Amino acid sequence: MNTLLEVSGVSKAFGGVQANSDISLKVPEGKIIGLIGPNGSGKTTLFSSIVGYHPIDSGSIKFEDKEISKLRVRQIARRGMLRTFQQTRIYGGMTCVQNMLISTSMRSHNLTSLFVSQKSGEHGRAEELLEFVGLYQKRYLLAGDLSFGQQKLLEFAMALMNEPKLLMLDEPTAGINPTLINGLIDRLKHANQAFGITLFVIEHNMRVIMNLAEHIYCLAHGQMLAEGAPEEIQNDQRVIDAYLGAH
Amino acid sequence: MSRLIGYAAILAIGIAAPYLFPNYQSQMAELWLFIVFALTWDLVGGQMGYNSFGNVVFIGVGMYTCAIVQVGLFYSVTDYNAAKGGGQTVFTFDVVQYLEGLAVGLPLAAVAAGIVAAILGSAVLGMRGHYFAICTLGLGVAAGQIANGWDWIGAGSGMVVPHAPSGLGETSRFYYYLAFVLAVLTFIVVSWLYSTRFGLAINAIRDDEDKAEAMGLPTTRIKVTAWVISALFLGVAGGLLGNLKRFIDPIEVAFAGASFGVWMVLMVILGGKGTLWGPVIGAIVFQLLKEFFWTYLLGWQRVALGLMIVLIVVFFPQGILGFLRERFPERFGHKVDPALARGAAGEAAK
């Protein structure tokens, strides 16, 4: 089994705040890996470091055995690693279909390839994926007019449209109606199995992450606290203490 | 079909207008140029969300380039500009020379403006929001001051554009048709752009540039390309405007941030930012109001214009088309499709 993403010894400080210190983890190809931790433990900072939003202070990040810690966001995205945002980000002034059409992978394309009709090629796949996340009826509505939960589903569909190798999801179920969460878990698993997309998921909802992930990392105070299978993490006294605020 | 008839009607009106209203030819020629200004401003300001107050730079660059080429092909530009106002030498252009000057000058105006846009764009398009707006405002002012101090192009006393030879017929009609053709061409190119993935990409940059970059779009190159495309058309429009005005003042005509620079933004806001027809409608309404104020409220025309600006921003923040789109979204195709799914099941539900 190949390691798709390998983070080793990554540290990042914002001024005096040590957001991540000496974090190491591995995301094997084809798996669903979870990342949990109390608020402020540095999960989103780690995500941002991995996709190149800010330079890291030390350590190395390898994607498919190639160092990417010096690359820019766009270059990393074009290699097939994509992240979604905790505060959902979609293109509010465009219809759902248009959101999908511009989300296709730029991996084998350059600027001139943008000067082709919108309708060419990918329209069918855009509609299929919108149907997959249950937004087919609303495909001609402006994305900004959708509810928050629907925007999250749209963002997920846009990420699938890009056909990434690794999809990093920052709290995919936050703000989603509890009855829809089961549906979302099924869709995430389906994306993993049917489309072969490796998932790396930050999640606060323990029921979701325990159902979803095969291996879980737990951060606390910017440090790697524990890792293991869901059952091990659930019973790890250090993790329980971190969440309940023990010293 | 009805759309084709609509386009044909607009073209017919455009072609017939100089014969129907022969007294208003230069105002109508100016209107077509305003439509070019508004369409190209909206490409960057509306569709891409980068509010530029510096697009006058491209008008000015185009205007000077075209005039310099028109002169420079046959005479020394230094002598020409030094001799203004009753010099010893007489500079005349016959019909062939005049047309040749335009045929070379207008394309070069486009190229020059495009190059300036590529250079400036790479430098300032990294800025966002208010920072970009203020920076471009400064670019317009700076360009005006540079032209104001540059002797070769006439400095502060401006540059006289070669006068049309009498053999050409009615000059204002000639320029009316050139402006008309340019406006139609601009509209065709811009509406084609909006139908491509490039159109989606600039919309994506408007809505969330960080997201667009995270999805792998080469945002900086897209932004510079969009600005260069709008500069190409503005350069030609500037060349025509200079010939229409016949005299280039560096600050009042060429780099006129306070008039053309602000007006083009107003036209787009009035018509509706980020729509294809909004800039066209906005430019027409604006030009009508402007001519009305300048004719009937002379002395108070700028006060009336200012008041109008306030009223537009307060009551039509979305513009005419933006207002309609908000009111009747289904007329713009933003509606719920009752079909639950794609394919057979969805077809059955319809």
What does this molecule look like?
- The complex is a heterodimer of chains A (247) and B (350).
- Chain A has 247 residues and is an alpha/beta fold.
- Chain A folds into two domains: 1-80 and 164-247, P-loop containing nucleotide triphosphate hydrolases (Rossmann fold); 89-106 and 120-163.
- In chain A, 33% of the residues lie in helices and 25% in strands.
- Chain A contains nine helices and ten strands.
- Chain A has a six-stranded mixed beta sheet with strand order 6-7-8-3-9-10, sandwiched between helices. Chain A has a four-stranded antiparallel beta sheet with strand order 2-1-4-5, covered by helices on one side.
- The longest helix of chain A has 17 residues, at 178-194.
- The model of chain A has no long low-confidence stretch (mean pLDDT 87).
- Chain B is mainly alpha-helical and 350 residues long.
- Chain B has a domain at 26-255.
- Chain B has 16 helices and two strands.
- A two-stranded antiparallel sheet of chain B has the order 1-2.
- In chain B, helix 5 (95-124) runs antiparallel to helix 10 (219-245).
- Chain B starts with a helix and ends with a helix.
- The model of chain B is unreliable at 344-350 (pLDDT under 50).
- Classes of the chains: A alpha/beta (247), B mainly alpha (350).
- Chain A binds chain B through residues 51, 73-74, 77-78, 82-83, 85, 89-95, 98, 101-103, 105-107, 110-111, 113-118, 124, 127-128, 131, 136-142, 144-145, 158, 162, and chain B through 195-201, 203-204, 206-208, 210-219, 221-222, 225, 274, 329, 333-342, 346.
Q: Within the largest sheet of chain B, what's the order of strands?
A: 1-2
Largest sheet data of chain A: 6 strands, mixed
SSE sequence of chain B, one letter per element: HHHHHHEHHHHEHHHHHH
Number of domains of chain A: 2
As a percent range, the share of helical residues of chain B equals over 70%
CATH topology heading of the largest domain in chain A: Rossmann fold
Number of helices of chain A: 9
Structural class of chain B: mainly alpha
CATH class category of the largest domain in chain A: Alpha Beta
Give the fraction of residues assigned to helices of chain A.
25-40%
Oligomer: heterodimer
Number of helices of chain B: 16
Shape call of chain B: globular
> What distance lies between the first and last C-alpha atoms of chain A, to the nearest angstrom?
38 Å
Uncertain parts of chain A:
none
Widest sheet of chain A: strand order? 6-7-8-3-9-10
